[in-house]
Amino acid sequence: MSVQTEGTDTAGEPAVRKAGAPAPPRGEGGGSAPAARRGAAAPYLLLLPALLATLILLGWPLVKNGMLSFQNLNPRQLIQHLTEWNGGDNYKEVLTGSDFWHVVGRSVVFTAVNVVLIMLVGTLTGLLLARLGRKMRLLLLVGLVLAWAMPVIAATTVYQWLFAQRFGVVNWVLDKLGWHSMADYNWFGSQLSTFAVITLLIVWQSIPFVAINLYAATTTIPRELYEAASLDGAGAWKSFSSVTFPFLRPFLYATTFLEVIWVFKAFPQIFAINEGGPDHLTETLPIYAFVEGVGNQHFGVGAAISFLTIVVLLVITSYYLRMVLKQEEDEL
Predict the structure, then answer these.
(1) Euclidean distance between CA atoms 56 and 62, whole angstroms
(2) Is the pTM for the entire model greater than 0.90?
């Protein structure tokens, strides 16, 4: 039987195979092709349970909501189990009304103000954590974690007590400090003051997430860079702008993106404070969809508003992502 050799293996012995026999298929790493294909498919198989859970828990409700938005669904239809399709009448009713566009503008401004304050105060707090000593840092971290862990409704109730008209701590403190006109001030009686309380609440709840993220990011910055900047005569601001900020930029982009989504869809704080009042002047899109859908029992209209809310949020986030990607391309 004729044989031919094919070089040597790792042990120095000749590798032998029959003459004319095809060489076994090999992958890029030297293994067989089926093994290589299995290795390439492994990440997708691991993601499959999460994808299935997402489709079931999020995809199906989204499909059902989309179907409801094309139906005339009111208490009568619910009781009689009727399905009345009305095409795009719900969307036409919402988009041609002035209320929807007022709420959209209000929601965008509310989101922008909150995100700017959250990122500014959260970033400063994160940088403060990096500067503090071990004991003070631990104390501040415990306070941030406790504020972050507090249930949303519990925190909202506390703020209602703090800003109560007759027995609120805030009015009592302002009265003692000399602002006697604030002794019985109704914080929830006007649009601006109600939004001020809600903004304070949302910013307070969001600062821990931003601060802890940014502090964790600062721990990845090599200390040698600060030493080199110090040797070059850089002051505190120059060290921040040339060393700290470039490292923190990706974290700032990602955190801002998450905060835009979180603030835009904020519901329990606004609804529990004053249910979108006074006179619907503090309704944002999630509150508006709930009031129209569940409150007024126009479920088809509420579904249409919620779907349009998703579209508005996608437009805002896509604009932000486009701006971020453009800045990164300019830097390259």
Answers:
(1) 10
(2) no
From first CA to last CA, the distance across the chain in angstroms is: 63
Q: What tens digit of pLDDT does each residue of 88-115 get?
A: 889 999 999 888 999 999 999 999 999 9
Query: How far is the C-alpha of 284 from the C-alpha of 26, rounded, in Å?
Result: 59
Query: What are the φ/ψ torsions at residue 84 (nearest 5 degrees)?
Result: -110, 105
| Residue-by-residue DSSP string for 180-215 | GGGTT--TTSSHHHHHHHHHHHHHHHHHHHHHHHHH
Alpha carbon distance 46, 120 (integer Å): 38
d(CA 125, CA 148): 14
Provide the b/e sequence for 282-297 (b: ≥16 CB within 10 Å): bbbbbbbbbbbbeeee
Task: Provide the pairing of β-strand 3-8 with 14-18.
Answer: antiparallel
- Answer whether 3's CB lies under 8 Å from 16's CB: yes
